């Protein structure tokens, strides 16, 4: 199965999973007006493997979407909504240090996971700062 990434004119990033009966289309985040991808996670959405990690769509991280309409992004901001905080990293850091998993039996796309402790390491920052910045276009 091959996933498809679609980006709306408002910057909403939609994932399409062909053949999946439950939630084949879902919003996985949004781009702000600069070069940042934003997504939201709850504590329940944090993968317990690898000591606690956040998963991202591999096609999105490799910029496999229509680049004629939307430019490549550099920064990634994860809004931890149940904690009222955010953590940040870069797309290239995720690709260099993340771990790939493919949950084929659940008909999910290939994902890359970055441990919570690795967020902010690419620039020596700490994680869990107060959540500010772009609001979700939802």
Description:
With 138 residues, the chain is mainly beta. It has one domain. It is 8% helix and 37% strand. It contains 2 helices and 10 strands, in the order E-E-E-E-E-H-E-E-H-E-E-E. It has a 7-stranded mixed β-sheet. A 3-stranded antiparallel β-sheet has the order 5-9-8. A hairpin with a 4-residue loop joins strand 1 (4-7) and strand 2 (12-16).
Descriptors:
single chain, about 140 residues, mainly beta, three-stranded antiparallel sheet, 2 helices, about 35% strand, disordered C terminus
Explain briefly what this protein structure is:
The protein has 138 residues and is mainly β. Helices cover 8% and strands 37% of the residues.
Globally, the shape reads globular
Q: What is the tally of helical segments?
A: 2
Order of helices and strands: EEEEEHEEHEEE
Radius of gyration (CA) equals: 14 Å
Number of separate domains? 1
Give the fraction of residues assigned to helices: under 10%
Please state how the strands of the largest beta sheet are arranged side by side.
1-2-3-4-6-7-10
Judged by helices, strands and strand pairing, the structural class is: mainly beta
Beta-strand content:
35-45%
Straight-line distance between termini = 27 Å
Can you tell me the residue ranges where pLDDT is under 50 for at least 5 consecutive residues?
A: 125-138
Query: How would you characterize the largest beta sheet?
Result: 7 strands, mixed
Q: Mean pLDDT, rounded to whole units?
A: 81
Question: Oligomeric status of the shown chains?
Answer: single chain
Number of strands: 10
